[in-house]
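Researcher: Please predict.
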Amino acid sequence: MNKERIETIKLKDYAEDSYLNYSMYVILDRALPNIGDGMKPVQRRILYAMSELGLNAGAKFKKSARTVGDVIGKFHPHGDSAAYEAMVLMAQSFSFRYPLVDGQGNWGTQDDPKSFAAMRYTESRLTAFANLLLDELKLGTVAWQPNFDGSLLEPTILPSKVPNILLNGTTGIAVGMATDIPSHNISEVIDACCHVLENPKSTTKELMKHVKGPDFTNKSKIIASQEELFEIYDTGRGAFKMQAAWTKESNDIIVNALPHQASGSKILEQIADQMTKKKIPMIVDLRDEGDHKEPIRLVISLKSNRVDAEEVMSHLFATTDLQKNYRANINLIDRSGSPRVFSLKELISEWLKFRLDTTLKKLKHRLDQVNDRIHILEGLLIVYVDLDKVIKIIRQSENPKKDLIKAFKISEPQANAILEIKLRQLAKLEQIKLETERKDLLDEKQDLDKIVSSKARLKTYVKKELKQIKDEFGDERCSEIIEHSESKAFSQEEILSAEPVTVVLSQAGWIRSAKGHDINPETLAFRGDDALKHFANGRNNQMANFFDSTGKVFSISAHTLPSARGMGEPITGRISAESGVSFQGVIIGTDNQTFVISNTSGYGFISEISNVVSTKKTGKNFIKVPNEADLIPPLLIKDHHTHLASISNLGRMLVFEINELPNLAKGKGNKIMNIPKPKFLAGEEKMSHICLIGESSSIQIHSGKRHMNLKLKDCENYISRRAKRGLMLPQGYRKVDKVVEIIDLDEA
């Protein structure tokens, strides 16, 4: 009794070998397409099974379940759902640029691609475009292999007349690799193929004159620069964006095209979520008005006509799937059966080699058929040369085939053809038909010989074929390509409604914000000995800018400030200020609003609020303040302001036109009031107050419990040029405690 031989191998070696085999199976037989026909095995088998069932374009529709049954029963022994899903994908116009399956029934929607009906309910057949992959299948163009049980043969590849992998693209995940190939326009791709046939050394840039970029079935825009597209086509890897197409109708934004494979319902959910969180208060309603005629129609209703639709869409592009990112990874199986990443030039060149080889096989196959038929025709025409002899041999011979071969020196196939001829074919008319057919075939043979024996003629033949396909199937580009698109999410400040607020700064550096401009900050309660230092009116969607004693400015969003109903909080908790500094003032407004900033040495300038806004917690240096000087709180310049009044601690006042001061981004500024330097350094004299005034306002000067109002016309004696000493105020008002502007409502 012979003992069974048992081979022992290491577990490590077995695991490595098994994993490698499985990996190659997934790569070659499931995930990656072949460069020749652009098909994965399951897709190829579906198309072949449908062609065998006679489900060509124009044929009667048949239940999809019948096709799936043939596919899994004869060629693809896997689950029916996987096969049906692959079939559905080839039928969806929003998935394939040029669908290969013509579906009848519910085949899903872009909003929900997997909402298709069960295969027992849907019907299908091949599209006319699928013929480009199947027409030459039985013309000796491809190799055949046994199916999984060896009972049937199936094609190893389809003889595609076009580079289908570029036209319809694909996605797939294998073991250790993936593929993401976008779809393209057939007219552009064929033009590129013809260019490579004429110029084999073409560069990527030359091909990009024909292939503008990816092209999908909808009208959504592709966002990609020429540099980004060049990277994709030159290296085989890269990325691009797609953006929804939209129009504005009254107060509504109408989205009528979504990025490839984007879901409309998901987008509406994303927008609705932002509406719930009050991130987009300018949007008041959402609707999906899509129907059978217009599948994509998302309506976004705005609060009013004043809302900038461009800004709203820019925000939605940045925060929803109305704009999506896509990566390109042109990874597929080459002619040798190995996976690799292709550039555009390499892909087209490799496919053209496949197409030239396939075409050569087709022509040789046809040439063999022509030669065989000519051979048969030459034998048949012998009948008409000596008809009586032929009839005699057939009537009298015991082995007519052998005798015919011997008598006329013909081949066995010719003899068989003679013996099979019918009596009615012996007429003179039939002889003429045979002679005409022979002549036509000889002409065809001559043409085929020329093409088969010449690479240049073969290329011309393929190029002519491609141009005919372009004439039949060519269409306009769907996806517009734009190089740049600004998509920016709203900041918190932009989202907020512009409600009026009063920002309050205390002497101890505590900050808070009160709603409205009608509040009197002096009436607010303060901690202990603390008191009001300065305040400013603005909007809660603006930045509050605080100035310290060194001339630095710090910016804090107004809406984040604590409520004035409490005591507030110290500003030092929000920023990183130097130790020992005090805060002197606050300004708030729009970026282009101007203000006056100064210090007690008598220097100052005009600036715009945009110059003081800082994103750093450490602030930014703005005005140079001498060591011996103090910062004077800034004053916002309004439209009615024409003059600036400056007052010294000795009671001198100078009034001059405000446009005499320079507008600076930062710095020391110019002299406002002439304060003698020795007196300033000695602490005897300084500029203590400034005030803005116009024709419709007056200066209110407080001295102790007394105050007086001076209109601009009352200041005639004090009006002079900038940098003068000014004149003394009246007795009793030379010790100025406070200066404020009073608006004359009758004149304003």
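Model: Residues 592-606+630-748 form a domain with the Neuraminidase fold (CATH 2.120.10.90).
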